Amino acid sequence: MSSATQQLQHLLEHAGLRVTQPRLRLLEFFARSSGHFTPEEIWDRLRASGHPISIATLYQNLKTFSEHGLIGEMIGQNGEVRYDTNLEPHAHLVCLRCGRLADITLELPDLRPRGQAQGWLVAQTRVDLQGLCPECQEADLPAP
Ligand SMILES: [Zn+2]
Ligand SMILES: [Zn+2]
Fold this sequence. Notes:
Layout: H1 3-14, H2 21-32, E1 36-37, H3 39-48, H4 55-67, E2 72-75, E3 81-84, E4 91-95, E5 101-104, E6 128-131, H5 134-140
């Protein structure tokens, strides 16, 4: 067994999860990919890499991984669930034209709610910003 696989195995054990081949393959996918993937995209890529796993097993494990904080979960532009390889706290910037997604780090200055929300404790933030990516801005320029 390679040391990389061993590391992933430890990660599963640490999360209190049983180590199975599909789980190792899925974790491996997240370890070497970066982005925000729908289950279908993950399924396609695993199949293309010669390590197919059943769609039911995939859905089940994505849910389990996300519950254990091994991967992030977010809602895409069209309401679809996507799984995020970036576990650092971050916000998302979405291109309104092509749907491209980028991670950004935001400095949130003051999270003590005032007014109607006074007394609340903020445990988590989710910020989605929308705009135009550089390519789409360029495509928008009038012809010279
Ligand atoms: Zn764009
Ligand atoms: Zn992200």
